[in-house]
Amino acid sequence: MTMRTGLAALLLFSLASVARAADVPATAPAAGSLEVPEAVYDAGRVDRGVTVRHEFVLKNIGQAVLSINAKPG
User: Fold this and answer.
1) Which of 29, 38, 49, 56 is at 20 to 30 A from 13, Cα to Cα?
2) Alpha carbon 36 to its chain's center
């Protein structure tokens, strides 16, 4: 009976912790964190010699400065 009571108490404590975590609003990460809504772009069939341009939107959803070191190609 004692083990059953202990398991019930552990289960209730776990459920209470999960419920409390669900009530807390999500916060932005403390470090810089990159959000890319469109990570892949399909230009379809492109003829030789045609220049294709596309802009990707990048958003820093963190609370610190985000540094991106991109190299063309």
Assistant:
1) 29
2) 9
The dihedral over CA atoms of 65, 31, 29, 12, expressed in degrees to the nearest 10, equals -170
DSSP assignment of 21-41 equals HHHSPP---SS--EE-S----
Tally the C-alpha atoms within 13 A of residue 19's C-alpha that lie toward its C-beta. Answer: 6
pTM of the model: 0.45
Question: Other CB atoms closer than 10 Å to residue 32's CB: what's the count?
Answer: 15
Write the single-letter amino acid at 5.
Answer: T
Give dist(CA 29, CA 63) in Å, integer: 6
Give the tens place of pLDDT for each residue, 33-42.
889 999 999 9
Residues 30-69: pLDDT tens digits? Answer: 888 889 999 999 999 999 999 999 999 999 998 899 888 8
